[in-house]
Amino acid sequence: MTSPVEPTSSLQSLHLDLPPSCLEFCPAHLSFFLVGTYNLQKHEEDSASAAESAGSESDKDDAQTASSAKAQNRNGSIIAFQVSNDKIVHVQTEPQPSALLDLHFNPNAGHHDICAVVSSTATLALFKLSPGQDQPLKHLKTMDMASMSAAEDPNTVTDVLFLSFCWHPSRADMIALTTSTGGVLLVDLGAADNSWKLFSEPIITHTLEAWCVAISPSLDLSVQSRAGQQDIEQNAFTLFSGGDDSTLRYQTISLIPASDPSQGRYALDETSSQPAANRRGHEAGVTAILPLCLTKAGSGLIVTGSYDDHIRLFSVAPYEPYVTGKAEMLAESNLGGGVWRLKRIDLDNAALEGTTWRVRILASCMHAGARIVELEKTASGEHLFHTIARFEEHESMNYGSDFLPGRPASKLTVVSTSFYDKLLCLWKPELV
């Protein structure tokens, strides 16, 4: 049994004005990153802090505070920083009328400077980051759930929060997001009238909060056989989601032109979109999903994180008619804290000594701090997790972590945050 790795020490730490909830570096301007914050009114913040003092048992309660507090009691901000000579430099702060729960830059070429954020009042907003200007972070547009869905009664969505989202990996104008009421929704950002359109019904529905969502290429081989490569990537894909109901859910999606343009450009192809499949096996809510773009005997591989402190590897079989696509757990590891977010650092497909492939992942582990985890497939076919770096200076919930892109893993620079102590830290793990 390998001995535990020693925690990495910070090179810099500073305190923010508001509690940080999410963080990401910009793929267009590599040294810049944004932090989203989530501020509760004083009496609610005290109550949540008291819950945190109970220790690891309160992981779930702390996160659920964000999905249950009344909308008028929250605000937040987006803060732009730059990493220069291993120092964090403040660039700009933009106050926001709502608390922010998730933040991501567009991964599609030509759009890497566009960032989306979702909020506690069910709003989706776009910003553009342009360093060199007096105010490099510029707001582009915001729409709320009622406006995007053309709801007849806006009051029907006043208690809904947008909890998380992801960009479509090959379609720059599409987002999947999750809600506090358990819905997983698709948003078309490219409608002809310059508005954003929610698909009329949730693609997937959880019985409790939907905490996370991810998109990967379609696992349905029958859909792939009917489409060209571009269609496969853009119009057919698999949507994964995790919820507080302890389930991993996933569904094959195929898009066709909408018959009613006023409802958006696309509709679901009911003849090829497959029913959602559920996978239990988590002991608590599913809070993170990371598709690896790897396969095992034709099944896609994904990594999940959960409130139950575990990171897990699943293989998800392609859909077959009359057979629900099966997800099989291949490996798991206890990271010591609720696994809130996962981000791939690198993937080595080349055969290393004793392995066929290796992937390294940055994990935000709530009360346990941040971890860097190595997942490998051995030459004998076994899948194993190893913790290869730890950062434990955070005294509160680590919800946001990311690394400076464009550098080899051996020279990794990581920035991580913690919520109630409002801490922002820079550290450099020693990786081989």
UniProtKB/TrEMBL annotation:
One of its GO terms (biological process) is protein histidyl modification to diphthamide. Pathway: Protein modification. GO terms for cellular component: cytoplasm. Residues 46-71 are annotated as: Disordered. It comes from the Eukaryota. Keywords: Repeat, WD repeat. One of its GO terms (molecular function) is diphthine methylesterase activity. This is Diphthamide biosynthesis protein 7. It comes from Podospora appendiculata. The lineage of its organism: Eukaryota, Fungi, Dikarya, Ascomycota, Pezizomycotina.
